[in-house]
Design brief:
Protein name: IS1595 family transposase
Distance between the termini: 44 Å
Radius of gyration: 25 Å
Number of strands: 11
Strand order of the largest sheet: 10-9-6-7-8-11
InterPro entries: Tnp_ISXO2-like, Transposase_Zn_ribbon
Number of helices: 12
Domain ISXO2-like transposase: 138-320
Organism: Pelomonas aquatica
Number of domains: 3
């Protein structure tokens, strides 16, 4: 039996010990190489002048040869104005990619020795960079589609089974003329709380392009946030991001009833089997939900609708890059953060600059594109 990639030496080509052994100058050189493609030539964020600018050793900054402004390797990026050291930022980024199901801000704060707010903002900036970098192009060949519910986690009642309460029975008889009062009396305090939590439930719809070669799994993962699993959102998601001629595999939900009008639609009935004899299944979509749900319950202990699209996009990125080495993941995520400019939703977050409403629909980064100069 072939060895799993995560157990191979190829995957372990970059360790925390190697990262910590680098000097501060080497950390800056690493950031400069990933941001500008060179360790000796820089691009001034203010005027865009490309040159070997004057290095100021004491401040760990450059002075522009043209406009004479000072800038650092993080100026004009999501790390602009950071309080943590470069070493701590890179350590947090390594911890983020090394965790198969992400890392909580509480755990990261203990590791860095900083406040929870600082760790949370740092991880959210990483997720924002992943979200902005999404460029959805239509999936082809074979695709699997499904929807899963997150947020609004229901809590179990305090008392189990039917409890005989003479006073409650008398109240129900007295209020039998009013259906509203009857419903209100039937609901316990826990039931009313669960009814409020249910309003926060959201459906994460996933569309995964599957490799036709057996054993290779999914190649690309696209996500879409909806209120519930319905025909309108599912049909819109599929028609927007699936090419004509795609073989679409789903479960037996009625939300996919319109797909045969546009695609070759194959269905598997989960109440009977997981995989049909002809190979029809949606196991790759379920695999994505498995990782996301374990993170919801075991790492974060709950998602909120406001930032559900960030977490859904993060785990789509993790699924798509599961076959890459540690050094490739580290460089790729750091490059995304450095290339996407200032943070839109988390720069000066505690001064009031924050997201005001939740984002529904596809996690396509082109929706959030800003006119930021891309430094090559």
């Amino acid at each position: 039996m072939a060895q799993h990639f995560l157990l191979s030496a190829e995957c372990r080509n970059f360790s925390r010990r190697q990262l910590e052994s680098l000097s501060d100058e080497q950390h800056i050189a690493l950031l400069a190489r990933l941001r500008w493609g060179s360790e000796t030539c820089q691009v001034c964020p203010a005027c865009g002048h490309i040159a070997k600018h004057y290095w100021r050793t004491n401040r760990q900054q450059w002075r522009c040869r043209s406009c004479e402004r000072d800038f650092s390797v993080t100026s004009g990026t999501a790390f602009h104005g950071h309080k943590l050291s470069i070493r701590d930022i890179l350590t947090a980024l390594y911890t983020f990619i090394n965790s198969a199901k992400s890392v909580s801000a509480t755990e990261l704060a203990r590791e860095l020795g900083c406040q929870w707010k600082t760790a949370w903002l740092l991880t959210q900036k990483l997720r924002e960079a992943i979200l902005k970098s999404n460029r959805y192009t239509p999936v082809e060949d074979i695709a699997q589609m499904d929807g899963g519910y997150f947020c609004g986690k229901r809590r179990s009642p305090n008392r189990h089974g039917q409890q005989r309460d003479e006073r409650a029975i008398a109240d129900k008889i007295e209020a039998s003329r009013s259906m509203r009062n009857k419903r209100r009396l039937q609901l316990s305090a826990g039931g009313r709380a669960n009814a409020k939590r249910k309003k926060k439930r959201r459906c994460v719809c996933v569309l995964r392009e599957v490799s036709p070669t057996r054993g290779e799994g999914a190649r690309r993962t696209l996500v879409y946030i909806a209120r519930n699993e319905n025909q309108v959102d599912m049909t819109q998601f599929a028609t927007l991001y699936a090419a004509q001629g795609t073989v679409m595999m789903t479960d037996e939900s009625s939300a996919f009833a319109e797909l045969p009008r546009w695609f070759d639609h194959c269905t598997v009935v989960h109440s009977q089997e997981w995989v049909k004899a002809d190979g029809t299944n949606d196991n790759q979509a379920e695999s994505y939900f498995s990782r996301l749900r374990r993170a919801e319950y075991g790492v974060f202990h709950g998602f909120r609708p406001m930032y559900l699209i960030d977490y859904a996009s993060e785990f789509a990125w993790r699924e798509d890059n599961r076959g890459r080495t540690m050094r490739e993941l580290f460089d790729e995520l750091l490059r995304l953060v450095l290339k996407n400019g200032h943070s839109t939703w988390f720069a000066k977050y505690y001064q009031g600059n924050r997201r005001r409403e939740e984002i529904m629909g596809p996690a396509d980064g082109r929706r959030f594109a800003r006119k930021v100069a891309v430094m090559q």
